[in-house]
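seq as requested:
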Amino acid sequence: MSQPVPHYQRIVLKLSGEALAGEQGYGIDPDQAAIIAGKVKTVYDLGVQVALVIGAGNLWRGSVGVQRGMEQATADHMGMIATVMNGLALQDSLERIEVPTRVQTAVMMNQVAEPYIRLRAIRHMEKKRVVIIAGGTGNPYFTTDTAAALRGMEVNANVLIKGTKVDGVYTDDPKQNPDARRFDYLTYSDAIKYRVRVMDLTAITLCMDYKLPLIVLNIWDQDSLRRAVMGEPVGTLIDGD
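struct tokens:
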């Protein structure tokens, strides 16, 4: 019996740093990293080419520094460095389950990670290696959501998947409002109009301009990532005009 063909052949998966934090809410929990790695392996084993972009909220939030008088650029550079730490932790977890992985960074750290080079990242994926792209965009004032959208376009991904703790985009915060309604589908314009909070508006605008579909899903739901790459309706799809 032949293996089903994934709907998306090349994906960029965006994760928050909190995905690695565990119950304590901060730092890096190796057990959480192992769980995330296992989820990535389920789609890797389907033959899907995977690039990962991860945030740094578990280690550092630039907004906290700015509120205390720190320069925005300094705070953002600290966050970019923290994403490399998260990337290395996730690389270790993936390599432990025999998923070849490379960490690339837009902030040069040649002793621990490769520099981000677009064509090299693509080549790694073609050679069946997961690529973790750290360091944000390499520039302050941009979020890792925006970095994920940018990298998605640069590596010619078929879709950008935002893995969160909620199962899609809602009309309101479902934890605060039990009557909040979940959207199965939104156009880019609607997502911008509703100012959806699960994704940076700059990132959504980039996806709209370059027609990169975006899926928002709960990464912790059973098989949600695998089902999404197979084209099943999972979370909220943001696409079209």
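The chain has eight helices and eleven strands.
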